[in-house]
Amino acid sequence: xxxxxxxxxxxxxxxxxxxxxxxxxxxxxxxxxxxxxxxxxxxxxxxxxxxxxxxxxxxxxxxxxxxxxxxxxxxxxxxxxxxxxxxxxxxxxxxxxxxxxxxxxxxxxxxxxxxxxxxxxxxxxxxxxxxxxxxxxxxxxxxxxxxxxxxxxxxxxxxxxxxxxxxxxxxxxxxxxxxxxxxxxxxxxxxxxxxxxxxxxxxxxxxxxxxxxxxxxxxxxxxxxxxxxxxxxxxxxxxxxxxxxxxxxxxxxxxxxxxxxxxxxxxxxxxxxxxxxxxxxxxxxxxxxxxxxxxxxxxxxxxxxxxxxxxxxxxxxxxxxxxxxxxxxxxxxxxxxxxxxxxxxxxxxxxxxxxxxxxxxxxxxxxxxxxxxxxxxxxxx
Length: 381
Ligand code: SAH
Ligand code: SF4
Fold this sequence. Notes:
The protein is an alpha/beta fold. The chain is 38% helix and 18% strand. The chain has helices at residues 14-23, 30-40, 54-63, 123-126, 135-147, 175-186, 206-215, 229-235, 244-258, 278-287, 313-325, 340-351, 357-369, 375-379; strands spanning 7-8, 64-65, 70-76, 82-87, 93-101, 104-108, 112-114, 129-132, 162-165, 198-202, 219-223, 264-270, 293-299, 330-332. Strand 9, helix 6 (175-186) and strand 10 form a beta-alpha-beta unit. The longest helix is centred in the middle third of the chain and has 15 residues, at 244-258. 48% of the residues are buried. Keywords: 4Fe-4S, Cytoplasm, Disulfide bond, Iron, Iron-sulfur, Metal-binding, Methyltransferase, rRNA processing, S-adenosyl-L-methionine, Transferase, tRNA processing.
């Protein structure tokens, strides 16, 4: 068997791994043993699997591998933020960001190299679509991040406590791989992350939101960005196919299936003089009247030639206050911590061309240094 036909065990869910062991004439329980080695201990060498006999180790070496995406670079910023640029099979690079906060660590994971949906304020969208990531390439980002903190026994608290599918790409357009990776994130034999702490963010691929509800119960975030169809058609082009009424209905169905007081996260990137006016806040209140949700305002993170600007701190606070007064739970993401997804959207475009390395380092520093719009606005919920 040649190198290229080896099965990569990194991206297999427990049932898939059980199927794999059966297919090579072995017992299904081997799946649990191997998953623990891979995900709890970060092992990529069958030789290290001490509870697997030599004969089976040799067999595995011949037909399988544990291969994460190649790490091109990793940066640790002064505030503890970690960033990896990894190369995937298609040759493209994607970015993963880890943000530590009191009592938790959030990892922002990419699902595609580039994105076909072309939201007008997103640097990933501006690059166009390159490739879907495999399940191994998606979960591999969690694997790499955890390993960077050293291998830890399963019982010890892990560095990555939350995952947001808010890096590069639209996860619902790489459905099977995104779902498999999220299943491994939540599996106790994988990363044991609670369903509430795994969040999939979508620009609004309505039919796939319904499909998602059939197979998984992770938290859902909708990238809204505009409170009416005319504006949203312009900012988030997929709205022309699935307009607000359709996508919000799908979100409500998804959330109601989850029960247990779970709510939709509504993401709203604030663009100066485009969607940050009081009339937009008023329309948003009306639009979300019967949607159980919390709102995350993301001040636009500028990138070269975007054509958009970040609103002033006053404008951000005014927008937040209007939503707040209408009874909404509203947070403003700062450029670290909760802002991790916005930073992903901004930074990936600057790292794709690796000849522009110096720009990337500047961008990473800015992410760590930049202050919140205002402490009160940033922290209020
Ligand atoms: N495709 C999915 C998930 C990845 S984008 C989605 O659109 O939801 C994750 C978030 O990054 C989106 O909510 C988007 O609003 C945000 N984002 C992208 N570029 C941004 C920028 N330049 N400034 C602020 N937020 C940005
Ligand atoms: Fe794609 Fe999301 Fe960027 Fe829109 S915001 S282009 S859906 S990655």
